[in-house]
Structures are given as structure tokens and as C-alpha cells.
Amino acid sequence: MERIQKIIANSGYCSRRKAEDLIKAGRVTVNGEIVQELGRKASYGDTIMIDGKALKKEEKEYILLYKPRGVVTTSSDDKHRKTVIDLVDTPNRVYSVGRLDYDASGVLLLTNDGELTNLLIHPSNNIEKVYLVKIDEAVDPHALKKLEDGVIIDGKKTAKARVKVKKIDKKKNKSLIYLTIHEGRNHQVKKMFEAIGYKVSKLKREKFAGLDLHSLKSGEWRRLSVHEVKVLYALAKKN
Ligand code: URA
């Protein structure tokens, strides 16, 4: 279930703000009933009409982008920086499933499928994310163990995680660590490393919900296959 103005905006008909105006003006019906409260919810299966015309369901798009560093994960940026939406070519109003920091790179899913987005970002969903983390120090493997058990960030312990060392180079003072998590808290990976005394110098998401960067270069993107979308739905609905 989703707020009606969000369903209308997700269909690409107009912005959420404009949809709210249409609702307040009594121009929107859900299954034949005029709805004028902004808090009301509907499901994607309900028939929503605006001025008596059924809301057209925009064709669903699923794009996997290899987000480069130095690009923001929003559709518009007040500092006029390049956004992830600028990198893809689609007539549809897609948005990102979750976020990657401006200075982070890697797998980012873009879609106009609000239902799938909600399923994938819901905290109970346990979607797996694998990050490759670079630290400009030779990290202590014992400290890494703490990440697996959970560390306190923003006053709350992180869930169990998996750590795999790719490289710890004592001579060059550099480490590359894989961290697998199932949550999506704000700046989670950077904060987890900060909690054990290390600053992340580079961050790349290698995998999201089983999707990886295979065959893509930084800045490139591709559409998901029908099969990949089915697998994502199955994964998202499992929990
Ligand atoms: N964790 C972070 O700290 N940043 C990201 O972009 C993603 C996960």
C-alpha cells in the first residue's frame, strides 16, 4: 500500500506535489470513489482515475548503473552537480533504490517501480550488499572481527556482517576489505569502519541483491532482463 499521490507520481503522470493538488481538488478516484484526503493509501492493483481517465501505468524500467565517484544519487542537485539520472537514457521518471554517497561507486539500481523499490529498501528485507572498502592503513584483523559481530553506530548496534580480507599490505599501508551487510543505514559502511578506528578512503559497492558490475565499466549501465527482475521480486518478497 502506498499513498495515492505517490502512486500517481510514480506513474510519471505528474509530480507528487501536483498529485496532491489534484486529490485536494476532488479530481482523483480510487476504485470509483472520490478521495480527497492526502493520507489515503491504495495498492498498485487499484484503479486510480484522474478526471475520469484511468492512470496509465508507465512501462516499468529497471536499470543497473555502475555509479562512478563524483556523481550524486538524486534526480536534481541544488549545487548543480552531475546526478545518476544524467547518466542514463530513458524517457521514464526513474529514481534510485537506496543511495550511494557522492564519493562512492558501484552497483546502483534505478527504476520507476515503486513497489519493488519499497520491498527492496524495507529494513526487514535483508537484502545483501557487498562493499569493497579501501583503507590507507594496514588494518588489524582482530578489529575487523568486531564488524562481523556488530558495532554501535548512531546509538544502535549493526546487524551481523561478513568480512573478507582481500589484501592487507603492511609495507604500503593499504588494506582492501570486503564487507557484506544486510542493512542500509546512512553512511553505514563508513560509520562501521569509523567505529573500529579506520577512515574509509574509497568505497565501491560490488553487489546489490545479487546484481554485480559484471561487464560494465564505471558510468555504464544496462537494462535488467525479465528474468533478473523476477529474481529480484522473489528475493524481495521472501521476507
Ligand atoms: N555505506 C556508506 O558509508 N556509503 C555508501 O554510499 C554506502 C554504504
TrEMBL record:
For whether the record's keyword set contains Isomerase, the answer is: yes
- Alphabetic keyword roster: Isomerase, RNA-binding
Q: What is its EC number?
A: 5.4.99.-
Which GO molecular function entries does the Swiss-Prot or TrEMBL record give? RNA binding; rRNA pseudouridine synthase activity
Q: Where is the RNA-binding S4 domain?
A: 2-64
Q: Kindly give the InterPro entries that the UniProt entry links to this protein.
A: PsdUridine_s_RsuA/RluB/E/F_cat, PsdUridine_synth_cat_dom_sf, PsdUridine_synth_RsuA/RluA, PsdUridine_synth_RsuA/RluB/E/F, PsdUridine_synth_RsuA/RluB_CS, RsuA_PseudoU_synthase, S4_RNA-bd, S4_RNA-bd_sf
Q: Name one GO cellular component term.
A: cytosol
Which GO biological process categories is it annotated with? enzyme-directed rRNA pseudouridine synthesis
Tell me where the transmembrane regions lie.
Answer: none
Of which family is this protein a member? Belongs to the pseudouridine synthase RsuA family.
Protein's name in the database: Pseudouridine synthase
